[in-house]
From TrEMBL:
Cofactor binding notes: Binds 1 Mg(2+) ion per subunit.
Record's subunit section: Monomer.
Name of the protein in question: Shikimate kinase
Lineage start: Bacteria, Thermotogati, Deinococcota, Deinococci, Deinococcales
Cellular location(s): Cytoplasm
Pathway: Metabolic intermediate biosynthesis; chorismate biosynthesis; chorismate from D-erythrose 4-phosphate and phosphoenolpyruvate: step 5/7
Gene that encodes the chain: aroK
NCBIfam families: PRK13948.1 (NF010554)
Cofactor(s) it depends on: Mg(2+)
Chain residues that bind substrate: 93, 117, 139, 195
HAMAP family: Shikimate_kinase
Binding site for Mg(2+): 75
Length: 258
């Protein structure tokens, strides 16, 4: 559990105050925010409402989060998934960067990791209240117990996986503060061993090694359909059970006949 002393109370209040505007700006500017790697949808479809309210889009879920280790592809796949499902996109690291006005390495160096984790926690509280969104988390977000509980209560969490070697190749030219060590591959291995049991608590697990992003997105969507169908079947079973035995409550009919 993060406390305000560790997170820095005055800073955190400023972060909370800036979060709403930051989120609005991030939702609006997402293609620019993620570096313009991909072509944005046409202007009218970015607002979502015309397609969505006309019922033309069939999708397995209207909210999903992506978790997993650094370099497994959460930011890139999340963006592509959001385009495929015509959902809004939030990258929690990019949102924090925008609200704080500093890059992630600057936040770590100048404000400390505790402050960054406190910001992440605030962001989780906000993005779990969004509708129609794909959320790409940072690699450590799902590791915090309170974040994990909140995310899993909200909807499915897809965990992306890759081997330490792939992660190393994908991150070696980037500036991830936790991998700034003499032997980043060894650091990846150690941190992965520590975190893997926690990532296992996600809803759906997808490997990303040696696969093009389109294939990964396709698998995620297929698996989300299976998950949604199973949820639906479960809900129907429970409704049928409730119908067959309408009153299990203490003091109700079934109890009265005991
Ligand atoms: N399936 C993939 N194949 C090849 N490169 C990928 C794949 N997924 C992501 N990448 C690349 O790996 C790097 C890290 O991906 P990113 O989405 O930032 O990961 P994360 O958000 O999980 O840290 C980026 O350069 C990204 O373009
Ligand atoms: O694993 C982690 O603790 C972190 C992962 C990073 O995000 P990516 O997983 O998108 O690289 C970023 O949030 C920060 O550097 C800390
Ligand atoms: Mg990322």
């Amino acid at each position: 559990m993060l406390n305000d002393t560790e997170g820095g109370r005055p800073h955190l209040q400023a972060f909370r105050a800036g979060l709403e505007d930051g989120l609005a700006g991030h939702l609006r500017d997402v293609p620019e925010d993620i570096g313009g790697r991909v072509t944005p949808l046409p202007e009218d479809s970015r607002t979502l409402s015309p397609m969505f309210s006309s019922g033309l889009i069939e999708r397995p879920v209207s909210w999903v989060a992506l978790a997993g280790f650094m370099g497994t592809g959460k930011s890139r796949i999340g963006w592509e998934l959001s385009r495929a499902l015509a959902l809004h996109f939030v990258d929690t690291d990019k949102l924090i960067t925008r609200v704080v006005g500093k890059s992630i390495p600057e936040v770590f160096a100048q404000e400390g990791e505790g402050y960054f984790r406190a910001c992440e926690h605030e962001v989780v509280g906000r993005v779990t209240r969004l509708e129609h969104a794909v959320i790409s988390l940072g690699g450590g977000t799902f590791i915090q117990e309170e974040n994990r509980r909140c995310l899993l209560e909200r909807g499915p969490v897809v965990v992306l996986w890759a081997t330490p070697e792939t992660i190393y190749q994908r991150t070696k030219h980037s500036d991830r503060p936790l991998l700034r060590t003499e032997d980043p591959l060894e650091r990846i291995r150690t941190l992965m061993d520590e975190r893997a049991p926690v990532y296992q608590q996600g809803t759906i697990h997808v490997h990303s090694d040696g696969r093009p992003s389109e294939e990964i997105v396709e698998e995620i969507i297929d698996r989300l359909w299976s998950w949604a169908d199973a949820q639906h079947a479960w809900a129907l079973d429970h409704a049928a059970l409730d119908h067959a035995a309408p009153d299990h409550t203490p003091g109700g009919e079934s109890r009265a006949s005991d």
